[in-house]
Request: fold
Amino acid sequence: MRKIVLTGLSALALSLSACGQSADEAAPTAAASSDAAPQNAPGVSVTDAMIRLPAAPGRPGVAYFTVTQGDGTPKNIAAAYVEGVGRTEMHETVMENGVSKMQPVKAVPIEAGKTVQFKAGGLHVMLFDVADTLKAGETTEITLTLDNGDKISAPAKIEAVGGGMDASMDHSGHDMSKM
Reply:
């Protein structure tokens, strides 16, 4: 019994000694590191984030959201990451000769005082290798990386299967063999 009490007191003393340390000094635990969100880029926010699951297993899903930059120098969104998704690509829907097509986008500029919408029929993030653990009605996290390395994270609501991609869209400019 005494050994159990000493072990418990030792564990308590160690955990309390970390309380006075900064986040950088304290050793992270597995639970703490998985719950910790990245620091958001100053002046930039992501709202209305939504993941639409694929229409069929093995097909791509899509992410929509709004990015706003309040102030500061212009930046570019360089990449997107969605928890539970193997690979993402930023795309834009364009009309070419009366046909709607998707084309990859390397970077999306955001300017001070401006808002950029990722929405159906415009900019969007294609989601490949969507894990079956992502379920409608739940949330996951989306993280955008800016060209200066800053990150912006936000919760993304997961919508029901069936709204993945518009079947009338021409995907000839995209390599669908990786899906």
